[in-house]
Amino acid sequence: MWAVAILTILLSVLLLSALSAAAVAKATATPKSAPQTCTIAGQVVDSHGKGIAGAKVTLYNMTIIEGKTFDTGLTTVEHNPQYTSSGDKAGYYEFTGVPPGTYDIIVDVNGMRYPEIKQVHEGTLIVDFEISPSGGHQVTTSTPGPSSRPATSEPVVTVIPAPSIPEEKQGNDDPFILRAGLGVLIIIQFIIACVALWIVMTRRL
């Protein structure tokens, strides 16, 4: 009888310790990595290659169904739509934090709209627009390395600030505190086991 009581108490302590360790491991699990995003950037120029400052660039998210594209609305990125920059980097635009997918890039210049549908999967996609006086446009697309294009550090004018994407709540408990709490819990369980064992032995005597 006495041996059975001791074995029961020890098994209870081990079970509670295992459950506590599992709870701490779940709370301190490595947060999920943020979803991969891309960058769509470029320059809007006239037929002489001069940057057109103030051209409005809008990025629309598209979906392709049976070979046809459908507009799903503005993608959730900052500064969408935006105006092209001025100064030394006249005519440049840049969208960051763009989820991979198909997009309709629309440039508005002097009341004329110039659309171009492009797909972006990773990294940076450069889409340059050349606007001709006759109302047409040509598009040049490239995917350069990180240092092959000047940085678009000029500020852009935000027309419609996109709502911020709510971040998925991650476990932010301090792992040290959790481990310390687990240690205290195990000690308490050990004390309870000792007290229970003492009670059993006292009654037996």
Sum up the structure in keywords.
single chain, 205 residues, alpha+beta, Immunoglobulin-like, five-stranded antiparallel sheet, four-stranded mixed sheet, 2 helices, 27% helix, 33% strand, rod-shaped, transmembrane helix, Carboxypeptidase regulatory-like domain-containing protein, membrane, transmembrane
Please tell me the overall pLDDT. Answer: 74
Order of helices and strands: HEEEEEEEEEH
Main sheet summary = 5 strands, antiparallel
Count the beta strands.
9
Tell me the overall shape.
rod-shaped
Portion in beta strands:
25-35%
CATH H-level homologous superfamily name of the largest domain: Immunoglobulins
Summing up helix and strand content along with how strands pair, one would put the structural category as alpha+beta
CATH architecture of the largest domain: Sandwich
Helix content: 25-40%
Please, how many domains?
2
For the record, the CATH class of the largest domain is Mainly Beta
What is the helix tally? 2
CATH names the topology of the largest domain as Immunoglobulin-like
The end-to-end span amounts to 13 Å
**Mind telling me the C-alpha Rg?**
31 Å
Which regions contain 5 or more consecutive residues with pLDDT less than 50?
146-172
Keywords: Membrane, Transmembrane, Transmembrane helix
Protein name: Carboxypeptidase regulatory-like domain-containing protein
Transmembrane segments: 176-200
